[in-house]
Amino acid sequence: MKHYSAFAVAREALRYHTGWERAWRSPEPKKRYDVIIVGAGGHGLATAYYLGKNYGIQNVAVIEKGWLGGGNTGRNTTIIRSNYLQDPSAAIYEKSRGLYEDLSQDLNYNVMFSPRGVMMLAQTQHEVRGYQRTAHANALQGVKTEWIEPERIKQLVPIINIDGPRYPVLGALWQERGGTARHDAVAWGYARACSNMGMDIIQQCEVTGVRSENGRVTGVETTKGAIECDKLGIVVAGHSGQLAEMAGFRLPVEALALQALVSEPIKPCMDVVVMANTVHGYMSQSDKGEMVIGGGTDGFNNYTQRGSFHHIEETVRALVETFPMISRLKMLRQWGGIVDMTGDRSPILSKTPLGGCFINCGWGTGGFKAIPGSGWGMAQLMATGHSPLTEAFSLDRFKEGRFIDESVAAGVAH
Q: Who has the most CB within 10 Å: 9, 15, 94, 359?
């Protein structure tokens, strides 16, 4: 008698009841598509979904070198917030947070959105002034955040130590409707919705070249053959520079590894997300009881997706003073992802020097929270040639000096 694991049983039940397996099939590519999206992560799949839903463009192929959601989408720590300082950033992240609220209903797939609240600790006087400024900016932007005092912080997070000798907690920027979602479910939900529209999601298919004629894209070369298209979207995170080079232009980005780890499961002890930027660490508790811990990017350019001991030491050491209980926890697993950083720590959603070719990259350490808003804006840009959400994030800003400086908000991994 053959025995099946619990995961296999659950997978077969999902397959039977929802037909989700169609999103995992990798059909042979057709000779021509209206749009090709390179990258089957959250941003690429969301772009394809909103192209179909909002603009009726459904002759779309999403091409993935590896497997669906196997890049940064499946390697992040799932934090969702929109309390950014600059107006263009707040607009696209708040659009995204709002879409997350109803994403399970929209996709008919439970993405496990949990608006548990996100707290950004101020542990220096400089941070107090900065977060109070951000709270005022958010009020003008229509983003609901508030400044809270240490007593309220202790009520919300009883396990926190607010009287640390080096970095006492002086207050926090609190976004009550921020939270988390299940990263894999976001990718699967968008993938299934795209598949139901008749789009092709082609895995294990690496792009090896970009075809063009008279300054306009005509298709791509892949390991499964040449495919023609009218429009091309490049949405490949840390590998954006390589794809851009194939298309004949350069990007102002650099690739770094971002690492995270989870502890062994423990009883519920923390039902909000806490970020401590002064010590470069943040923590939340997953539905399974694991403490999800992360910090900053590696200090050197690299493409590794493995963890390293120095990161465990630096990040956990930084958090132990604020959360003494974690000193007694065992680490369960650790991983890394490849993030692409711009000089102003803001993304690029833009037309490119190659006609019909569009680029979505540069999300750095905060790409997961932006998936729905990024896909919405990118789809609008590709379908109509213009989007209010993406206008400020064009490549031209680096030539014109129109930087969107979010180095404070995005300098820590989140």
A: 359
